[in-house]
Amino acid sequence: MQFKRKDLLLLLVPLVISLLFMIVVPRNPLASDGREYDVLAKNIISGKGYSLDGNTPYGLRPPLYSLVVALIYFMFKPNPYYVVAFQIILLMAIPYIIKKIMILGGFNESQSFCSALIVAIYPFGYVYAQQLITESLTTFLVVLGAYFSIKIVRRDDIKFTAIIWYAIMITLPALAKSQHISILCAVLLVSLCKAIFEKRKFRTISWKCSGVILGAIIVLAPWGIRNYHHFNRPAILGYGAFGEGFLKGYYHAKGEWLIWRYWNEKSSSKGPYFEEWKKKFDCAEELAKSNNVDTDKIKSKIALQEVKKHPFEAFRGYIVRFYSLWIAMPKGDNISFKVKALVLTIEICFLASSLIGLFLYRNMLLKNLIVIYVFVLAESVFLPVIDVESRYSISLKPFLLVGLGLLLANVYSKFFIKEGKPSG
Fold first, then answer.
1. Which residue of 100, 229, 285, 394 is surrounded by the most CB atoms within 10 Å?
2. Closest-CA residue to 220 (of 160, 180, 163)
3. Of residues 261, 392, 252, 263, the one with CA closest to residue 330
């Protein structure tokens, strides 16, 4: 697809908004999980391996982001602001890839451009570019993976080597954030469903699925072999991640129902059930050590026992975590009430209007881009089972925001273009 002059706007808008956020809402690059990623990257380049203390193997988080940070540190110097600059460059590319996805999905130039522009304008993803956390890299990889997933699903004339290459690209997001293994699963599921319902040749689909699985193995095998060596299990989605998230998620949202109360919580350490969670967490660690049992299984078992004892509480917590995943809610007493209300209003307006657009264009989206919405739906359902933050949905939101772009393109074509047929 030819790069057009107006596409420069899709590159410049993310750059301008990122710089504005750095001026107006500056953040410490090493805040939150940033310090951990900084330590992991420094240990990698110093030859101490993927470890926090330089001795004990680390497996909670997949390694790709830490490897990228380590590479940047190695090429330049261990300064987090080089990583921030790299992340801004990645964000600049995302709207253009979204435009290519929409065109691949059968939408016209105007609809595709408007969809990409809305993704570029949406403000809340840019704040994370200032920190050493995975969101910028993950969003770029997810959007790129979505592009290649459409190619795999919709085309039957792809060479086997190309399928492997595309599969590598759709598996890389899982090596940055484990939740995105859903992209790989969605591609396999949709390909098989198309073979059944559209009566495609079994040989073609089996060939395609074999290439996808081979590409995934190429990406995930080194990580799985390394974890098996250290932890006696492949743990391709991270060692110990599920049990810890399941246990923390249950107690973090326990007793919460109203959005306002949860929204105003300063941090998980000041939540009403933090002490109860800490006791269960420490108990799980002690049981695992004394019985030489996997801590992940112990934490999962304790959380599951609580869910069985208090099913309504568990369901309520799931609902709280679901809207906490999708709605940006700034926390902390250093943020004024007006700012919190403004952020919430902007977020709801963006999401509500996007859902309207998705509904109006549902037939075309589901026909041509169904693989994307399968993995978006899967993550929306499964992520709230564990402890989540609104930043976990940043990599999924572009596929919702395109709905608002389609809506605006339709309005523009009806009221501002006198000649020709309206878009859509």
1. 394
2. 180
3. 263
- The answer to whether residue 382 is domain-embedded is yes
- Taking a C-beta distance cutoff of 8 angstroms, is the pair 237, 174 a contact? yes
**Is residue 372 assigned to a domain?**
yes
51 assigned to some structural domain: yes
- Decide if 186 contacts 149 (C-beta within 8 A): yes
Question: Per-residue pLDDT for the chain (424 aa), expressed as one digit of tens each?
Answer: 566 788 899 999 999 999 999 998 888 899 878 999 999 999 999 999 999 988 889 988 899 999 999 999 999 989 999 999 999 999 999 999 999 999 999 999 999 999 999 999 998 889 889 999 999 999 999 999 999 999 999 887 889 999 999 999 999 999 999 999 999 999 999 988 888 777 666 777 888 899 999 999 999 999 999 988 888 887 787 776 777 777 777 777 776 655 554 444 444 555 566 677 777 777 777 777 777 777 777 877 888 888 888 888 888 888 888 888 898 777 666 777 788 788 888 999 999 999 999 999 999 999 999 999 999 999 999 998 888 888 899 999 999 999 999 999 988 888 776 554 444 4
Q: How far apart are CA 248 and CA 145, in angstroms?
A: 30
Answer yes or no: is 130 within a domain: yes
- Residue type for position 235: A
Reported pTM? 0.90
Which among 192, 239, 195, 252 has a CA at the least distance from the CA of 387? 252
Own/partner long-range contacts of 226-231 (Cβ < 8 Å, ≥24 apart):
226/50, 227/59, 230/57, 230/59, 231/57, 231/59
Instruction: Read off the amino acid at residue 191.
Output: S
Structural domain of residue 404, as residue ranges?
7-239+327-415
Q: Which amino acid is located at 202 in the chain?
A: F
List, in sequence order, every residue forming a beta bridge with 57; answer none if it has no partner: 51
What total of structural domains would you count in the chain?
1
Q: How many residues does the chain have?
A: 424
Contact 211, 163 (CB under 8 A): yes
